[in-house]
Amino acid sequence: LPRGDAEAVVLSAPDADPGGALTDESEPNDSVAGAQPLDLPLLPETGALVLRGTLVPGVGAKADVDVFRLVMPPSGSLLAGDGGLPPRKRLRVDVEPEAGSAVAVQVLDDAGNPLVSSSAAAGERVGVPNFSAGSGMTYLVRLRAAAADPANPKAPPVPGSYRLTVGLSEPEPGDEGEPNDKPELASRFLGDGRVLEAAGLFGWRRDEDMFRLPLAGLPDGAVLSVE
After folding, report:
1. 187 vs 140: which has the higher pLDDT
2. Is 202 exposed, middle or buried (0-12, 13-18, 19+ CB in 10 A)?
3. d(Cα 89, Cα 59) in Å, to the nearest integer?
4. What's the CA dihedral at 2, 208, 108, 186 to 10 degrees?
């Protein structure tokens, strides 16, 4: 749904050069307990963190998995939450694989439970452009080699090198935040009570966005218009 002059649907298109600090993957980092910690910038002006890594060939239990630990900065530096909700930050996770390789990305909670999953065809960027991260919370990003064609998941995975970019920014009021593909996770509309607006992104294949529309206090016979 449009917010002001924003587009209703925006495809994720990260900058080719995020201008962030460059670091390297450090093995072993294939488990929640052994996740490689990444230091995130406190403010978007400091740029993003960029990491170079490689998913080495392997099958089944021997398949390489790279896990990274992200600790969100405390509240105060970015937009605070509203309505009694914890302050939130927009976390962007973007993976650019080398030509011919494919990567699947998951954002997990600190116990290793998947929250958002995304994959793309070989050579295509993949990630989560607008994950809603709680202030002071810990999350994990897990990467694994994926099939060259997401429509054929039984095809063998195609490992290779990649560049992982992680950044934080301030969410705008009314912006959706992932995950919001279930009623209990629905994003919120904001407005003056008569006009409620929201904006969102379709960030990956089959991404679904749900928004919670408050109707309390409307008079009998009120007409709801959704554009």
Report:
1. 140
2. middle
3. 36
4. 60
* Rounded average pLDDT over 80-102: 76
* Dist. CA 80–CA 135, nearest whole Å: 9
**Per-residue pLDDT tens for 111-141?**
999 999 988 888 999 999 889 898 889 999 9
pTM here is: 0.77
From residue 185, alpha-carbon distances to 49, 78, 119, 181, 210 in Å are 28, 22, 21, 7, 8
- Cβ atoms 117, 105 nearer than 8 A: yes
Strand partners, 169: 90
Does position 9 have pLDDT exceeding 50, yes or no? no
Query: Both tokens of residue 22?
Result: 């460059």
| 85: DSSP letter | P
Q: How far apart, in Å, do the first and last CA atoms of the chain sit?
A: 7
Are residues 75 and 135 in contact, defined by beta-carbon separation less than 8 angstroms?
Answer: yes
Describe the strand order of the beta sheet including 160-169 as a list of residue ranges: 21-24, 49-55, 160-169, 88-97, 126-134
Distance from C-alpha of 182 to C-alpha of 191, rounded to nearest angstrom: 22
Number of Cβ within 10 Å of residue 91's Cβ equals 26
How far apart, in whole angstroms, are the C-alpha atoms of residue 29 and residue 107? 15
pLDDT tens digits, residue range 202-216?
877 778 888 888 777
How far apart, in whole angstroms, are the C-alpha atoms of residue 174 and residue 37? Answer: 31
CB neighbourhood size of 68 (10 A): 22
